[in-house]
Amino acid sequence: MSPAATAAALTPQQIAFFKHEGYVVLEGAIEPAYIQEWRRQVLRSLGGSAETPVSWGDRSKEPTANFEPKEIRPHNHPAVRAVIEQLGGGRFVCGHDSCVITWPQESRAWAPTDRGHLDGYNSSLGWWPFMVSATTYLYDVEPMGGGLTLWPGSHTAAWNYFRARPDQLDGGYIHDPDFNWKIFHPRPPHEFTARAGDVVFWHAFMLHNGSTNISRHPRVGLFTRWRHEQQERIKYEVPESLWKYWAI
Ligand SMILES: O=C(O)CCC(=O)C(=O)O
After folding, report:
1. pLDDT, tens digit, for every residue of 36-52?
2. d(CA 192, CA 189)
3. Residue 4 pairs with which residues in a beta bridge?
4. pLDDT tens-place string over residues 202-224
5. Is the distance from the beta carbon of residue 45 to the nearest atom of ligand 1 less than 6 Å?
6. Are 208 and 158 in contact (CB under 8 A)?
7. Is 112 left (phi over 0), alpha (psi -120 to 50) or beta?
8. With pLDDT > 90 as the criterion, what percentage of the chain qualifies?
9. What is the atom index within ligand 1 of the atom nearest the CA of 148?
10. Residue nearest to atom 5 of ligand 1 (CA)
C-alpha cells in the first residue's frame, strides 16, 4: 500500500462547510488498496469467504476494524490523520476504530430515519465525550442502502441547548420531561450515500442514526472517534465558542 506522499487536508471552503453544517465529506480519501485489505480482514472476522451476501458468514459475529498491522487502521490513514491534525491542531487522539454492518432487509419497506441520537453525550448509550467522528464505507452505498443519516446543523442546535442547560451535558436531557428530540433537528436529515473510500467527518454534537438497508449488499461502515487530549479536564464544559478546543 503506498499512500499519497503528502495527504491533502481540507480547503478553507470545506472547513467553513464543516463549521456550518457539522460535517464534511472528503471524496476518494481512501485508496482502493486500503479498501481491498479492509474488506479482506472484515470478511475474515465474520467467517465469510466471498463478497456476496449469501456467503458473508455469521451475521451475529462482531466485525472488527482493528486491522493489522496497526499502521493500516482507519485512524492511521494519512489523509484521515491530516484532517484530524488540522481540525484539532494535533490535540485530538483516537478513541477507537469500529465496524458497523447494516444487513439488508429485503422484506422491509424503506422509510427515512425520523430520529437521531448523540453518541457519547447520551445517558442511555453511555457517557464518553469526544470531539469528532469519521465514517467511511467499504462498498458504495446508494440511497436506501443503509447510509448513515446526519442532521445538518444539529451540532449548533445541540450546543445552543447545552449552553442554556450545561448541567444536562452529562446526558441528563434524555430524562428531562421538557426535552424533545426535535430541538436537535433544525433541518431535514441527510443520508450519507457515498463511494467506498469517501470519508465523512462529523462533529460529536451531530445528531445521527443508521438507516434501513433494502439494497442487496451489506452496508459496511467504519467509524472512528477522537477525543481531546484534555477530555477529562474539559468534559463538563459547554464552551462559549463551539470551536474553543479546535484549531479551526
Ligand atoms: O450505522 C450507522 O450508520 C450509524 C451508527 C450509529 O448510529 C453509531 O455508531 O452511533
Report:
1. 999 999 998 888 876 67
2. 9
3. none
4. 999 999 999 999 998 899 999 99
5. no
6. no
7. beta
8. 72
9. 3
10. 210
